[in-house]
Amino acid sequence: MKKICPNKINTINEKEILVVDVRENFEFKEYRIDVENIENIPLSEIDNKIQEFPDNREVILVCNNGLRSEMALKFLEQRGFRNLKFIEGGIVKWIQNHLKIIGNAPDIVSHSLSLDKTCGK
Questions:
Q1: Nearest residue to 17 via CA among 60, 50, 48
Q2: Are 31 and 68 in contact (CB under 8 A)?
Q3: DSSP per position, the chain
Q4: Partners of 102 in the beta sheet?
Q5: So what's the pLDDT on residue 98?
Q6: How far apart are CA 87 and CA 8, in angstroms?
Q7: Which of 20, 53, 66, 105 can pair with 109 through a Cys bridge, CB separation 3.0 to 4.6 Å?
Q8: CA-based angle 38:39:41, to the nearest 5?
Q9: 78 CB contacts (<8 Å, ≥6 apart)?
Q10: Is 119 left (phi over 0), alpha (psi -120 to 50) or beta?
Q11: pLDDT of residue 119
Q12: Domain boundaries, the chain
């Protein structure tokens, strides 16, 4: 699986990389990770918006906890996309690694799933 831990990301603001938040629009408007090249394409709309995914640059998918972004990755790979990764643990692990977000995540996000900020366990 092509996953990347938030504490290993150091090049996410490069112009060649596109971050796609696959949460619903209302979630994205409330809070999101603080990176330059980010778009919101909800998992529920990916099939209708598949043409918005570039096939010539790396795409990193993110959601709240990694579940939807992993599903999106599998869906896109089945349709021929190859330059894909997803953020393991999603925004939860992003926050646990003290990385910046825009907006205010609810307290439950920062306390859900895991108290461990590392990945791969």
A1: 60
A2: no
A3: --EE-GGG-S-TTSTTEEEEE-S-HHHHHHEEE--SSEEE--GGGTTTTGGGS-SSSEEEEE-SSSHHHHHHHHHHHHTT--SEEEETTHHHHHHHTT--EEE---HHHHTSS-S------
A4: 32
A5: 87
A6: 10
A7: 105
A8: 145
A9: none
A10: beta
A11: 74
A12: 3-110
Residue with tokens 């992003």: 94
Per-residue pLDDT of the chain (121 residues; tens, 9 = 90+): 589 988 777 666 666 789 999 999 999 999 999 988 899 999 999 999 999 998 888 999 999 999 999 999 999 999 999 999 999 999 989 988 889 999 988 776 545 555 566 676 5
- Taking the C-alpha atoms of residue 113 and residue 93, their distance in angstroms, rounded to an integer, is 9
Give Cα separations from 8 to 30, 119, 120 (angstroms): 25, 10, 12
Task: Determine the residue type at 48.
Answer: N
**Fold designation for 3-110:** Oxidized Rhodanese; domain 1 (3.40.250)
